[in-house]
Amino acid sequence: MSADSVKAQALFKQKKNINFPLLSDPDHKTIEEFGAWQKKQFMGRTFMGIVRSSFLIGKDGKIEEVWERVKAKGHAAEVLKRVSNG
Fold first, then answer.
1. pTM for this one?
2. What does the H/E/C string look like for the chain?
3. Phi/psi of residue 49, each to 5°?
């Protein structure tokens, strides 16, 4: 989920040839409810922003696992390993 607009996500999806839906939350409502809107620091500046997080949601709609402050590199493999191990 991103705080980018639906239009911006559509352009990104087309540019990167993504074949799955992207979720937009420009008002941060859901992002905040999931706890991913947090205080961040960069170059001595503090601001609110999205902390990259992943949520494994089970078939029953309940969150089974949360990964907070993840790095993109290697994370997909970690999630796939967790999903394939049940």
1. 0.77
2. CECCCHHHHHHHHHHHCCCCCCCECCCCHHHHHCCCEEEEEECCEEEEEECCCEEEECCCCCEEEEECCCCCCCHHHHHHHHHHCC
3. -165, 175
